[in-house]
Amino acid sequence: MKKYLLFVSFMCLALTGCVEKMEEEKESAYSGKTDQLYIAIKEVYGDSYAPDFEYNEAKAESELDIDMDNVKDFFIEQSKEKEDTVIIIEAETGKIEDVIEDLENYKEKLVLDNSDNLRINAATIYDKDNYAFFVILGEDTAGNMDGTDKNSRLKYYKEQNQKAVDAIDGFFGEV
User: Fold this and answer.
1) Is 94 exposed, middle or buried (0-12, 13-18, 19+ CB in 10 A)?
2) Cβ distance 49 to 137 under 8 Å?
3) Could you give the count of Cα atoms lying within 13 Å of 80 in the half-sphere of its Cβ?
4) For residues 102 and 70, is the Cβ–Cβ distance under 8 A?
5) Is 145 helix (H, G, I), strand (E, B) or coil?
6) Could you tell me the sign of the dihedral formed by the alpha carbons of 107, 108, 109, 113, in that order?
7) Residues 119, 78 contacting (CB under 8 angstroms)
8) Which helix or strand (DSSP H or E) is residue 135 part of?
9) 34 with 90: CB under 8 angstroms?
10) pLDDT number for residue 6
11) Taking residues 79-92, what's their average pLDDT?
12) For residue 151, with 0-12 CB atoms within 10 Å meaning exposed, 13-18 middle and 19 or more buried, which class applies?
């Protein structure tokens, strides 16, 4: 009986160790940079940061047409109107171009569905190292720009998105 209890105790400890090791490996598979990049971007915009709905893997794949086989880690947050969006993707090794293509296709779809929305037309796609970004952020002052021509408004929205690009560059140590 003692041998049996000893064996069962040993097996429980071994299984606990295996589960802990699997959890550690799962956690180490993600760099954690996507969350840090999100915080850096969000801080730049302060109160004008409007995305409030976070995407999970299934939603990212079904609604944004992002091939999650090319994704190592990600953070996606969007407003209900899809006018305020931040997508941060760490690509699997050798897959950054595929991820960028997915983001370009998503932008194209958004623009087709919202051709008169200059904020969406000004969406910025940017890549740094093995990360790809899609940004529609910043203050929407469309009501204050009614008398302004389209090119000036488009330029303004691109400048708003540039704040995120500057935050990304600052995060990676380039200013």
Assistant:
1) exposed
2) yes
3) 0
4) yes
5) helix
6) positive
7) no
8) strand 131-136
9) yes
10) 56
11) 90
12) exposed
Q: Which of 66, 87, 150, 80 minimizes the C-alpha distance to 115?
A: 150
Please give the model's pTM, rounded to 2 decimal places. 0.78
Q: Both tokens of residue 104?
A: 């370009």
Contact between 96 and 130 (Cβ < 8 Å)? yes
- Helix axes of 33-45 and 150-171: crossing angle, nearest 10 degrees: 130
Alpha carbons within 13 A on the beta-carbon side of 57: 7
Distance of alpha carbon 28 from alpha carbon 30, whole angstroms: 5
> pLDDT tens digits, residue range 131-159?
999 999 998 765 566 667 888 889 999 99
Tell me the pairing of strands 85-91 and 124-128. unpaired
Q: In angstroms, rounded to a whole number, what is the distance separating the alpha carbons of residues 160 and 148?
A: 16
CA separation (Å) from 89 to 1, 21, 62, 120, 141? Answer: 55, 26, 16, 19, 28
